[in-house]
Amino acid sequence: MGIRTAPFYGSFADSYSTKKHWDPTADLEIINPARGHMTCVGYAPSCRRRCQNPINQANRASAHRLLESLSYIDVSTTDISAQLRQLAGLTLCVRYHQGQNENMVRTWTKQIRAQKEPDMQESIQELQRLIREAQLLASKISRSSGQSPRQHFPTFSEDETFHTKWQEPEQSCHYQERVKKMQEEEQRRKRQEEIQRKAREEQNLRRKREEEQRQQERDEKERQRKKREEEERQKKREEEEIQRKKDEQEARREEAREREERKERIRLKGEQVRKEREEKARLQAEKEKQEWSKLWIPYVSRWEEIKKNGAKGTSEHLRAVIPWPVKSGDYKDVSDTSVEEFFKKAVPQDANAATKLQYMKAECMKWHTDRVPRLFGVIEDEALVRIFTTVAQVVVKMKQELQ
Asked: Which domain of life is it from (predicted)?
């Protein structure tokens, strides 16, 4: 879909001028404002808007050249209907809107007439002004010669030219004299106007100087008033600054006091928390100490019973009857750490180093790998053997540390 390609006819040299008289692209609304570029200029009734079909490159180039040539034509004196018809053929899409060619020419003609009418009215008014000046000149000449103005100034209809009605003033024998008198009268009038102009200028200058003097006085009063107001504002700012510094100083003192109070509250609270924590830890340690102290005597008593009565049996029986040196007494909790903790905390805390060494020597005898078979028989359960070995290694290590 595109715009019908038509040959470009740019041979309008007889109507051309050396300057542009108008902008046909803008005045004829060639650019589609909805798209921002040139589209079909026809109207699409189904869409109730301007057609938005694009124009192919060849037709667009021809349209631009034709628009450029139209800008140099004075449309107030030249009929450009043929060019407008050619432009419509280039800018209407072939598929839908070629039938709107004459409508576009009429529309564009109305737009041009509406836009150029003010310029034509201005030209008519200028021509009328020139005619009035010529009539005034003819009237002056006629008064000086006693002749009717119509003898010196043409009256012509719209179909007659100015030159066919104009009668040359030189036909009068007194023409030069009248012209001289008119020139002298014009010079006197100009001198009088110059005198009046200078008088007006002097009067205006005097009034201007007086007004300037009054203005200076007003300005001085205004300056003094502003100075007083500025001094008052400055004084107020200084007072406000002093008060602001006092308020800031007081606020800093209050903030420092609150900060110290807050620190003291935090310190007291921290001290209280610390004491509570220490007390809790002390009670916990005391409780734990009591719990450990209660484990040693039953542990020793059970071993004495085993030594006295023996404890041979199955692995399950041994796991149940042997007093294992851990806080829970359960073989499942036996480990290097738990066994060492037991002998450090369950042994009477009031015992000295020598007594503790004797305790550990006795433990080494109990858990020695050579003594275990005599007390409990041959143990084939490897897991149980590993438990005995763990206890034996720990008591040997602790005995060596005490030696």
From this structure: Eukaryota
CA–CA separation, 169 vs 161, rounded Å? 18
* Alpha helix (H) residue ranges in 310-381: 315-321, 336-345, 353-367, 371-376
d(CA 372, CA 314): 14
Closest CA to 92 of 53, 62, 58: 53
Cα distance between residue 100 and residue 190, in whole Å:
63
Query: φ, ψ for residue 178 (rounded to 5)?
Result: -65, -40
In whole angstroms, give the CA distance from residue 385 to residue 225: 112
Q: Is 285 exposed, middle or buried (0-12, 13-18, 19+ CB in 10 A)?
A: exposed
Taking the CA atoms of residue 59, residue 60, residue 65 and residue 71 in that order, the dihedral angle to the nearest 10 degrees is 120
pTM exceeds 0.85: no
* 155: three-class secondary structure by DSSP: coil
Instruction: Judge whether residue 291 has pLDDT over 90.
Output: no
- Picking from 227, 272, 246, 395, the residue whose alpha carbon sits closest to that of residue 326 is 395
The predicted pLDDT at position 202 comes to 92
CA–CA gap between residue 46 and residue 52 (Å, rounded): 12
Q: What share of the chain is helix, strand, coil (3-state, %, to 5)?
A: 70, 5, 25
